[in-house]
Structure formats: structure tokens, C-alpha cells
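pinned: reference chain
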Amino acid sequence: MRRLRYPPLVIAFLIIWNGLACSQPTYPVRPITLIVPFVAGGSSDILARAVARGLENEMGQPIVVENRGGGSGEVGTAAAAKAAPDGYTILLGHTTALVVLPNLRDSLSYDVSRDFAPLTLLGATPQALVVHPSVAKTLGEFVRRAKAEPGTLNYASGGLATPPHLAAELFKQQSNADIVHIPFNGSPSAMTALLGGHVHALFANIDSVMPHIKSGEVTALAISGERRSPYLPDVPTFEEAGIPGLVNKSWFSLVAPAKTPPAVLELLQEKSRAVVESKEFQDFLGSQIIEPMPAGPKALLSFLNKENKRWAHVLGTIKAE
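pinned: its C-alpha cells
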């Protein structure tokens, strides 16, 4: 057989090329950005920072939390959709941005099914209807006053189409209470307005409002879960308080740009699931009064499909605002 012969220059090139290929660093080699589509200080931000701590340990790189509020979550979510699909940008997916806005707005700057790949579910929290102590002591009293004085009571929210706003709209439908919506740029601002007595009521995630309930600064009238919260055992559900069908929760997830390379996406899914299932993160969820949810991309996809069907038929009144 003829022996193949290569010129010395070709041999040298092959040796160098092979060395470079073998020495190419594997993902990740630099910090990863976790976009939060809401302002700092709220439930999403607090949760994202706990996720970031866990992912830093799993990925071996810093996770930079970047708050991009605006448009009820659309601004930050659109930024993540347009980010380079290289594994260095992920998004804290939220009820509003991934399910509500696509069913609410005819034109949206992103398409959830086209622009994102699922990583994992994180957790969920129901909302509590809280009022300034001067307004009412019970849900029945609040509803009676709203009916007797139509249009004079108001409620704050962290923005149009946020889960607390949706809970309030469901409340208005189920109770026929005439209360006026006053949206703020983020839940912290809405809470400040309530504490100052500038608004009458607020639907808020339990974790964010708990300290103010405990201190007596606000009065909790009901919660939007299927059952009473062990953290608020004396506060009835809306069902128990006489308003059936009002179950609503804020839920959180992680997603990545859709065209992220399969190997990178698989690693992100594996590591994010490891974070969610860790004892440290489960303990954190408990401390924040956030209910754990099934982890992994399949669980997230199934959940998104159910949520889309659930909300598709209840958003007519919000569109009219």
C-alpha cells in the first residue's frame, strides 16, 4: 500500500488545529444574565436572586440579575426573546408575560411558543386582598360598602394584567363590587400607596404583604388559594368568605431563547432543575410563602398549556380598560 505523505507545513497546521479544538472552553465561560421583567424589590426580584445564587453554584459562573420593568413584563420579556441564543441570557418567566399578555394584546413584541424554550417551573403564590385598616374588617363589609358607594372605593396593583390585577378583576366579576383600578409601576409602589392611605385596597402576593399584615398596617380579608394558607390560618379563602370561583396565583419559571444550542439548553435545564429540587431552594420557597411546583421543561410546557386555556376566556373586561 502507498504510504500517505504530508508536507511538514500541513502536519504542523493539523497539530495546531487539533490542539486548538481540544482546548476550546466549554459552556459556560462567562457570567450569565438572568432578566427579571419587573422592577427590583418585588416577589419576582427576590425569587430571581435566590435562583441566581443556586445557579452560580451549579454553573460555576456568576449569574447577574438584571431588572427590566415596564409594560407589565413585556419590556424585559421582549429583551430576553431578542437576546443572543447562546446560553448567556435567561428569563424569569412570569404569569403575566408568558400567558396573560399573549391572550390580552393583539400585538406583542414576542411570541412565547416561537421565541422561548422551557427550563423549569419554580413556584407559585396566591394573592391576598388587603385593605387599609380604616376601610373594612371583613370581606363582607368591604363588598357591602363597594355596592353601597359604587365607584368610590379603589384598589391598587403593580400594573395592568399582573396576577393581582387579574385577581381583582375576577373579584369584581364574582362579587359585582364596583371598585376602581389604579395601576402603579410595580408592586412596591402600590404597597407604599396603600400603607400611606392613598388607596383603599390591594391584591398582593402573600409573601410580599405578610410583614404588613403581621404588623397591623393592613387588614387581610381573603386569599385567592384553594385552601387557607398555613401562614395566615385566620384569613379565609374567597370561597369560604362567600365568593366562589376566585382562585388565582402568581407563578414563576425559567426560560431561555428558543434557538439556544441543544447541548447548552440541556445543561441549563439540568442545572436549573437541580436548583429547584435542592433543599436550600425548597427552604427558601417556604420562607417566602411560595408553593413548590413540579420541576423540569416538560412540567413547564404542560402547565403553560393549561394556563393558556384557563385565562383565554376571562380577559374581556381587562381588554376593555
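why pinned: Confidence is low (pLDDT under 50) at residues 19-23. Residues 43-59 form the longest helix (17 residues).
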